[in-house]
Amino acid sequence: MKAFLILEDGHVFTGTSIGSAREVISEIVFNTSMTGYLEVMTDPSYAGQAVCMTYPLIGNYGICYDDQESTRPWIDAFIVRELSRVPSNFRSVDTIQHFLTKHDIPGIAGIDTRALTKILREKGTMNGMITVDENYDLNAILPKLKAYTTGKVVEKVTCREKEILPGNGPKVALMDFGAKRNIACSLNKRGCQVTIYPALTPAEEILGDHPDGIMLSNGPGDPKECTSIIKEVKKLYDSDVPIFAICLGHQLMALATGGDTYKMKYGHRGGNHPVKDLTTGRVYISSQNHGYVVDAKDLEEKNIAHPAFVNVNDGTNEGMAYVGKNIFTVQFHPEACPGPQDSSYLFDRFMDMMGGNK
């Protein structure tokens, strides 16, 4: 069946429908990872977005449900150049096309993903529609595309009730703003007892459970939409509990302490982004997935926090160290599934902040 990807600037790509045949409007973004498509599809940070994989062949190792970063996929749609319909891998238990169909997620294959990526890089991230209607009306569709926003997606992806992963080490409160599964696993493997809290949990409840440390997770959307969460993060900042924040958590901490964030032209999404540790000068290859970034200027001028990491490619902020506080935050993903494990040592730094395994 034919499918069409229509961008808000009027570009139309024609390909083949994969997955669900329903129509969808979403923000179109691209990911440069060569592998890890299942982790990408199940990463809650992609809620409200349709993902284009820039690597041309996707699906050749199939689907292994053990690799999911959450219990379900969160992407709005999936865009690939060539779909491998017959996977070959001893761990594979499913195909991408069946996985998408089962979860009612539309997709398109057979389009020029290099051309699409170049458009997004030159003009910036834009909205688009995937449809199988060959009689689509472009004049009627374009206003709908321009009007689309992802909205408050954190409330959509967060857990509904508190969950505890038992451990004999420090007690960590993990704020679930759209947390990837491997964040909790990385802490749990180090012996931590991890308590996962819904995103809208009041700070008083979290601090009342007397955690040894607090983790602010990744998540989707514009951080400035999270107005009520930012107020609670400020209360956590005012406590003396050690805090480690990743991605959206990093942005929310900056906003809670008087900093600012802004939308990037096309974001960082993939497993090959170099970041420099400003303390040691060492460069790490990192996994990233974000469309917004912290403006560190105000925090630095007010001596609230100082940049700790910087992106080697474009100079954007990749992490902050907070003055007089046991708080550090990073824009990239040290749990990195998929992606390089270069920066997993940051979990060990967090363990040291909490006093290690007592």
Describe this structure as you would to a colleague:
By secondary structure, the chain is α/β, with parallel strands linked by helices. 24% of the residues lie in helices and 32% in strands. The protein has helices spanning 37-41, 96-102, 113-123, 138-147, 154-157, 181-188, 203-208, 227-238, 248-256, 297-301, 345-353; strands at residues 2-7, 12-19, 24-31, 49-53, 57-58, 77-80, 82-83, 106-109, 126-131, 163-165, 171-176, 193-198, 213-216, 243-246, 260-277, 283-295, 305-311, 317-322, 327-330. Strands 10-12-11-13-14-19-18-17-15-16 form a 10-stranded mixed beta sheet, sandwiched between helices. The chain is globular, with a radius of gyration of 20 Å.
User: Structural class of the helix and strand makeup?
Assistant: alpha/beta
Query: How do the helices and strands follow one another from N- to C-terminus?
Result: EEEHEEEEHEHEHHEEHEHEHEHEEHEEEH
Q: What shape does the CA trace take? A: globular
What assembly state would you assign to the polypeptide chains in this entry?
A: single chain
N-to-C terminal Cα separation, in Å? 60 Å
Helix segment count?
Answer: 11
- Largest sheet, described in full? 10 strands, mixed
The total of beta strands comes to 19
The percentage helix is 10-25%
Query: What radius of gyration results from the CA coordinates?
Result: 20 Å
Mean pLDDT: 95
Uncertain spans, ≥5 residues at pLDDT below 50? Answer: none
Main sheet: which strands, in order across? Answer: 10-12-11-13-14-19-18-17-15-16
